[in-house]
Amino acid sequence: MDNSNDLFSGFGGANPVRPQRQAARALPKHKPAAAKDGSESYSAADIEVLEGLEPVRRRPGMYIGGTDDKALHHLFAEVIDNSMDEAVAGHATFIEVELDAEGFLSVTDNGRGIPVDPHPKFKNKSALEVIMTTLHSGGKFDSKVYETSGGLHGVGVSVVNALSESLEVEVARSRQLYRQRFSRGQPLGPLESLGEVHNRRGTRTRFRPDEQIFGKNARFDPARLYRMSRAKAYLFGGVEIRWSCASSLIADKDKTPE
Prior knowledge:
Heat Shock Protein 90, 7 helices, 23% helix
């Protein structure tokens, strides 16, 4: 029988065609490197304990999400939320937002005013100083003072203080006016009593963000601040939000009101 036309004849004859195989190379054997004993270079002395507001300045991104323009304006959100909480609780009827030519942003309300009496736990500090210099401090962790709060969902005004080159708080409470100044989270002096004041109550926070954190060209955008303020007014109709901005900060074609 002629197998020349058999398609499978090449696989079944006396000399079958076998595929050639290349000899596999033996992979070089590597011994695992011995683990280094780093105990001498990593000890208890290398463990840092950051106190006060130092963690905020070292890692601002952990608190406000970065150091960009969005993070910069988040500072304003933290401050105005505190005033909004006073309004929602029925203690404030207006909030004033002012941006001046020097880049200072002021938020003023006619609420109850931040407490200024000595704090029970830190008797050498006023409650105002504790709130401004201590993380996780405030009156919003239970429902005794505020039934609802927007500021509680943020990082707190102490973070704003830590990231501000200059910050000043004025409190009108019980017919007395008080003031305390801070720089980069540190008090520049004790709480000052400025004397009696009539027909005024509430809190005024005036601050300018720190160039060391946000860069030399960091500036508040008037249009963005105005939109944020207006959005707060829409959310709660029981408060009047007043807006003021230095004319030199508004561009020619910008329709943001002064």
